[in-house]
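Thread title: Can someone regenerate the structure for this chain?

I was given the following input by a collaborator and told the matching C-alpha cells would be attached. They weren't. Posting the sequence so someone can regenerate them.
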Amino acid sequence: MRTSDLPQRIFTRLLQDIASGNLRAGQHLGAQQIADRYGVSRTPVREAMGLLEDSGFLVRLENRGFFVAEPDAEAINKALNQHPEAIDVDYHRLADDLLTSRLPEEVTEQFIRQQYGWTKARVNEVLVRAAREGWVERKEGYGWRFLPVAKTPEAFDEIYRFRMAIEPAAILEPSFELDRTILLEQRRIQEGMLQMNFNAVPPETLLQNGALFHEELIKLSGNPFFLMALQRVNRMRRLMEYRANVNHDRLVEQCTEHLEILDLLEAGHNLDASHKMRKHLSGALKRKSPLAWTWAAGAKAVHSEARHEEPAMEGEIGDMMGTNLQGRR
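Best answer:
Regenerated them for you:
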C-alpha cells in the first residue's frame, strides 16, 4: 500500500462505521481519536476527514472540529462501491493461515513480508487491524505474538454452550441493574443495523456490533467476572465467526431478537429476558455450527492435499537421483 493510499483507506473505514451506525449523526470526531483507533498518525486522518467533508459525510464547525452529517444511505453506498476494501483479502488470508496452524506462534514483520509478498505498510496495517480485533499483540521490543483463538468447530460449539450458561444467568443476578443510557444506545445500534446497506459494511463491524450488545448487557449484572469471561471468549471465537458466512436474513433475525430482549428488560421482565437470551444463543449455535464444521472439513481437506503433494515431489526427486546414480555406475 502506497503512503498516498492511506487517507483513502481511512476514508473508507470511517464511512463504513457511519454506514453501520457505529458513528452516528452529530457525533464529534477528533483526529487523535481516529489516529489511535487505526494505529496511524494524525496527518492522513486529517486528510481523510477533509475528503469526507468534501463528500458531505462530515461537517466542519469553526473552532469545534468535525461532526458526522446526517447519513445519506444512497450516497454512502455509492462511495463505498467506488473504493472496495482490498485489505480484506490479505487480512482474511492471514486469519485463515492462523486457523489452519500454518503460522508459528510468534512472527516478525519481515517474516510476514517474505511469507506473503506484502509491502511494509500493508504488513503493519494488517497486523494493527488484527491487534484491534484481539487476535495478535505486539511483543515487547520486537515482533508479534498470536493470541489463543478457537481453531476448531468443537471449540466454537463449546464457546456457545459456555455463553448459554453465563449470559442468561447474568440477567438474573441480584445485582443486575438497568442502565437506560446503555439500553438506548444498543437499541439505536440494532435498529440502525436493520436499516443499513448490508453489503456496504465489513463482516468484522457486524460481528463487533453483536459482541458489543452482549457485553453491554452482561455488564449490567454488576459482576465483573461475567464480563471478563465473555470478552475473552468473544475474542477467541472471532475468526471462526468470519467463517460462518454472515447473511442478510440471519442478521435481520439476530437484530430483531436483540431488540426483543431489550423490550423485555425495559419492561422489567428479567426472567423472560433470560429465557429469551438462552433461546437466542441456542438458535445462533444451531445456525452457525454446521457452517463452522463445513469450513473446517474443507480447510482440512485442502491442508491434507498440500501435505500429500510434498512427499510425492520428494519421491520424484529421489527417483530422479536414483536414475542418475545408476547412469553413473
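Residues 87-146 form a domain with the Arc Repressor Mutant, subunit A fold (CATH 1.10.10).
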